[in-house]
Amino acid sequence: MSNFPWLTTIVFLPVSAGCVIPLFPFKGNNIIRWYTLGVCLLEFLLITYVFCYQFNFSNEFIQLKEDYNWINFIDFHWRLGIDGLSIGLILLTGFITTLATLAAWPITRNPRLFYFLMLAMYSGQVGLFASQDILLFFFMWELELIPVYLLLCIWGGKRRLYAATKFILYTAGSSIFILMGALTMGFYGSNQLTLDLQNLSTKSYPIELEIVLYLGFFIAYAVKLPIFPLHTWLPDTHGEAHYSTCMLLAGILLKMGGYGIIRINMELLPHAHSLFAPWIVIIGAIQIVYAALTSFSQRNLKRRIAYSSISHMGFVLIGIGSFTDIGLNGAILQMISHGLIGAALFFLAGISYDRTRTLFLDQMGGTAIYMPKLFTMFSSFSMASLALPGMSGFIAEFLIFLGIVVSHKYSFNFKIFVTIIEAVGIILTPIYLLSMLRQMFYGYKFSKLLIFSNIDAGPREIFILISLIFPIIGIGIYPNSVLSLWTSKVNFILSKFIF
After folding, report:
1. Taking a C-beta distance cutoff of 8 angstroms, is the pair 306, 235 a contact?
2. pLDDT tens digits along 157-179
3. Quick check: bond before 229 cis, omega within 30?
4. Residue 180: how many CA atoms within 13 Å on its side-chain side?
5. Nearest partner of 7 among 135, 132, 143, judged by Cα
6. Which of 77, 285, 383, 430 ranks highest by number of CB atoms within 10 Å?
7. Cα separation, 297 vs 290, whole angstroms
């Protein structure tokens, strides 16, 4: 069975299953819901099977390679393969998408299109993390934007068109740099176009060209990750999107930027990376503090959580720029950890809105009495987000801290400077999260809730939240369970940098 095209099956299953949705009878949304949930579960089980039985953890090279000739004219191949870096993110994609499909249960407006777009997104995300061809990587990157744009336009809030247009302008505009960079790298030094990531990693470029390429790719990933000052699409998008879309955005879409920086900027352009790394660390440190302060000033619950996402992504940048295996391990772990915590917080914000019909914190207050289960869950995930020891966020941020402190690349003063800024960020995080809890759940303000009797979270919502909190606590207590996936890959990437 080792010759079976596992990855192609995993990439094509959701979107091809989604194409069957229009054939279903028009009456009843339930068939479509259960069908989509079944497809997502089947896909997740397939990913887990491949991960358990076909994947070798100690091997840092690309595994389960598939290479089919696609377009002869430009030597464009359908090249797939996974290593320790992508397998964790593919598992995260499967997990979050399945839960987001379950979270989208209440949607009644045009459910056939909605669930088809969810499945199309699923395919695009898995395809991106598994692609081993730089043009295929770009192809999947673009494929991802269309479902998100439509999900925003049709199922968003009041300002959804503004948010969707801003999203598509930022992300599609910046991804042109990926295409230009990919073609420049492919054509450089030979008449034949080489797009295979394995071959590209052995190429060397003049340092001026490498710097230009690095900056081009970095802009594209800076919009996606988001990095200050290219982050302004994120609060608008999160503020307007339906919460199931928010789960996918926070859980998986932002991780594509971090993955791109590690996979392309670090692996293919190591000389430029060693020049830019100090700047990346400084931007990351500024971003942590800036986004935390901005988050504190937001009245809208979803926008507050969106800014907290931006703040947490600053840690990923510091880990990537630290040049230590500890720091890079922490950065990848922070991406996985934030994928789980961010998805949970947006889901909670969405179901709170369903009950209170407001997203403004100053209109809430005293809801803990009516919604004790929701209150418990919101508090638990906020604690996870502010890096409480015993949860995954703590381990990730601690590793990043440690990575920058033990790094040989930086001077003592630089380390002190970055560590102090990081520490300020870590102090600001509980301030905005705990003040959010205080405004929502404590006090006496809210009286609209008395109309409803069964207002607390139902079994479906509790199930989603418990599914998310188990891995968060599991990683927090035994981080080696996931760190062992990519440790050999991280050492392999860092072996390219010589000090």
Report:
1. yes
2. 888 899 999 999 998 888 899 99
3. yes
4. 15
5. 132
6. 285
7. 11
